Amino acid sequence: MTEVNIRICDYTNPDHTKGLADLINAYIGDKMGGGEFLSVADQIELTNGLKRHPASVVLLAEADRTVCGLLVAFENFSTFTIRPMINIHDLIVLPGYRRKGIGRQLLEAVIAIGRKRGCSRITLEVRKDNLSAQHLYQSLGFGEPLPAMHYWRKELE
Question: Which in 41, 45, 88, 93 has the greatest CB count within 10 A?
Fold first, then answer.
């Protein structure tokens, strides 16, 4: 495994905010992303929005003095378990740093945060064609819920 430092994003640190924006743009540009790159104004709004969001959990992975990994999650509340839970929204590792254990370390860090906060579970969504991510998640104990669920959405103007 590559030596990596996992940190909670410090929004007052320009290296962290630049790393956050760069990694979101890398994710958008990745074949698993598929969106439009964020403008500079959008990058600032992203940082400010996450900073203001009280339930956000933003972790950065740094190796070789490079912010090379990002995990964005949000704490929520389960009405079934009557405890908090965490949903992982984004996980990205830069291509040159993949298969070095960085994604695993980010996931282990958010799992530790969830345990510390008394969460009942951690959820995430993964594309059907992202088999390498699925293998990573399975190796950490993630699996499809039973009964199987579908992920739906409605766009709002």
Answer: 93
**Domain residue spans in the chain?**
5-139
Q: How many Cα neighbours within 13 Å face the side chain of 62?
A: 14
pLDDT along the chain (157 residues), means of 10: 88 94 91 83 94 97 95 97 97 95 97 98 93 95 87 89
Which of 2.40.110.10, 3.20.20.140, 3.40.50.720, 3.40.630.30 is the CATH number of 5-139?
A: 3.40.630.30
Q: Is 140 helix (H, G, I), strand (E, B) or coil?
A: coil
3-state SS, one letter per residue, for 68-118: EEEEEEEEEEECCCCEEEEEEEEEEECHHHCCCCHHHHHHHHHHHHHHHCC
Cα angle 59, 117, 58 (rounded to 5 degrees) comes to 15
